[in-house]
Amino acid sequence: MFRRRNNLSFSHHQEVAGIESPEDRQWWLDRALEGDGKKRWSSNKLRAAINQGKAFDRTRKVELEAEALGKFVVLYADPPWQYASNDPYYHGHTRDRYPTLSIAELKALPVLKRVDALEQDEDVQHVFHNLG
User: Fold this and answer.
1) 53 pLDDT more than 80
2) ∠ CA(50), CA(56), CA(108), 5° rounding?
3) C-alpha to C-alpha distance for 101 and 95, rounded to whole angstroms
């Protein structure tokens, strides 16, 4: 059963309204309440995180079989990783703009399993990466 959170705005609830599973809606509202540890997420940040989650889900569902994709297989991954800079012109951390992944979370992404499989495949000519 879905419950409204009195400590979140209508906009927060509107962002999760399109999510089919009540458990998933609750999970996203919990994440918005937890925020980044200092303050809860805005409805815009919640929307960005939900969209990022949907994009990851779509990526995971893609079958990366060389025969289905054609002669050349290109696997490109640019997940939202955490970084900082000592540059005086640097204007903030990426995590201030959208949710990012830690090194441990990046290494847990299923793309690494696919890279390993490609490296073992005798039909694949070259595998270039700078992952784990």
Assistant:
1) yes
2) 120
3) 9
